[in-house]
Amino acid sequence: MDLTSAQIGERLRLLRKERGWTLQELSRRAGVSLSAVSKIENAQVAPTFDTLVKLARGLGMGFDALLDQMPTGEANGPARGGGRLSVTRANDAVGFSTSMYEYHVHASGLRRKYMTPLIMAVKARREGEGITWSSHDGEEFIFVIKGRIALHTEFYEPVMLDQGDSVYFDSSMAHLFLNIGRGEALVASICYSNAIDRPMLAGAAGGQSILIPDAAEAVPGEDGA
User: Fold this and answer.
1) Residue 200 reports pLDDT greater than 60
2) Dist CA 108 CA 106 (whole Å)
3) What's phi and psi for 85, nearest 5 deg?
4) What domains are there in the chain, each with its CATH number?
5) Please, what is the end-to-end C-alpha distance for the chain in angstroms?
6) How far, in Å, CA of 104 to CA of 25, rounded?
7) Where are the alpha helices (DSSP H) in the chain?
8) Of 36, 46, 35, 34, the residue nearest 8 (C-alpha)
9) For 78-98, what is the mean pLDDT?
10) Which one of 76, 141, 210, 225 has the fewest beta carbons within 10 angstroms of its own beta carbon?
């Protein structure tokens, strides 16, 4: 199921209005510029992965729930626990595109998870106009399924990766991928973060948003007992 920019914008507007928020309020809570939020809602730009993660956390939901088309009351599902399993069939991954990448999100129905598995086609072939760097909380593992790519980061020289190669890096470091082969470049990307798919509790003291902890992370003696 591939989502267009218009569908993502409509979904974002619906979630914002459900909360009774203005564009300015969502912008403040998500840490995304007012102009960018407005353009995304009106399908004037295709949001990047990083921006969608920020918007989801600002809305108090997981990244996958933002892309989900099910009724919003069902969005977060059961809390994270043992014994969970999620199967994504070949045509069931949730897809969306930017000028640089085409994403297909797997295990999108599983909430409160630490990993976001993606299959990503790298479309961009050269640095320049329209090329944007990514940066998001956590760590990322990349495995090249097909083609040849270059990984550019803010602290290291570019790394060339061929089919079968992999790289693991700190994804809070600015990075981008370029297709440097003759044909299609396809990679498996697994993004790990203890915040990437955990809801935020907005409106905490001082106007700051805080992560809602998992029960498994609760510290004994700090529950007021």
Assistant:
1) no
2) 5
3) -155, 140
4) 1-76+200-214 (1.10.260.40), 115-193 (2.60.120.10)
5) 47
6) 29
7) 5-18, 23-30, 34-41, 49-59, 63-67
8) 46
9) 80
10) 225
